[in-house]
Every structure is written in structure tokens, then in C-alpha cells.
Amino acid sequence: MSDANATVLVIDDDPALRASIGRLLRSLDLDARLFASVSEFLEVEPPKCPACLVLDVRLPGGSGLDLQRQLANANREIPIIFITGHGDIPMSVQAMKGGAIEFLTKPFRDQELLDAIQLGLSRDRARLRNEETLVALRERFASLSPREREIMTEVVRGQLNKQIAGDMGIAEATVKVHRSRLMQKMEAHSLLALGRMAEKLQLVPREPQHG
To answer: What are 127-139's pLDDT values in tens digits?
Structure first.
């Protein structure tokens, strides 16, 4: 499970448990950052690498569930694994509805925690990859001329060159030139690929899901 480029943040007010989790993670070459309270955690900059949060439910000065809501409201996406010595079903349901990866009751086995952390880090890694892809896509779209952007939107809506030319009052040959150029700039090798890019950029409304 070694992953040098990943950080596990741990918030628990029990010093012994905090230290024990820290030792376990460092033995696997994971960067462990340990906090005794929510306020301590909120003072530090979020890590730039894949990360997940191991969070005690009951903490001084605010519960772990409150922090989960606070992070969601701030659009700060980080996979959360809750740990608690006083778990109950409504609490675990609330945590999981809020998007928690796992809800572990103390004492838990090391492997249970490690499995949850592995899942959390892989989800965060995928989220960061998607964000990077979207940034690159936006940069490519920004490089298009206003006319190319307009034609791209019409193409992914299923309009033919002739229809686009008629609507815009330009020659069909001109549409073809713009279309070829925008495909190159977007690095789209097919109309299907261009359609997927347009969906990620939210240029066209998503088709409603049936069933």
C-alpha cells in the first residue's frame, strides 16, 4: 500500500490512538498529519496531493459530523473515514449520507482502517485526475476563436455542416475549415470524443436519464 505521494489527515482527541494510527501509516510510507481538534485541522493548508481524512465523531469544540457538513458547504472535497467509540445507527447513516467512505467503531482492526484509507486515497486520486483533465480541456476550449466555439457547440448538438452554414450565413466550405481547425485544437480524434469533451465543459444539456 506504499504511496509516497499521499497524505492521511487524522483528527482524534485521544493522544494514544492518534499516535498509534500515525505509527501505522508511517510504517507504510504514508504521510500522516495528526490533529487533536477540528480548529487545529482548519488552521493548516489542504494538501495538494491525494488525501483522505480519518475523523473522530466526538471532538472537543465541534463534532466530526459538523466538520463533514462544513467541508461540504465549502466545496472542499476529501474522502472521510469516521471512527467512533460511541457509534449508533442514526449517526452512521448521517455520516454515510454525507458521503463518508466508512464508519468504524473503536476498537477496529488495523486492516479495516487501511482498507478504508486505500479506498479513500484511490477516490481522491481519481478526483484530482478529473480536475486536471478538466483544466486542460478548458484551456484548449479557450484557445478556440469565438466562431470555432460557436461551430463546436452546433456540431455536438448534431447539426450538419450545411445546416450550420445556413444558420450562420457562411459558406459550407468555411464551416468545414473551422470544424477541422477546432477538432485539431481540441485534440479530438472523433465526433464522439468531441461530444464527451462538450459534456465535460457543459456546453450542451445532459440527456435526461430514463428508467
So the answer is: 999 999 999 999 9
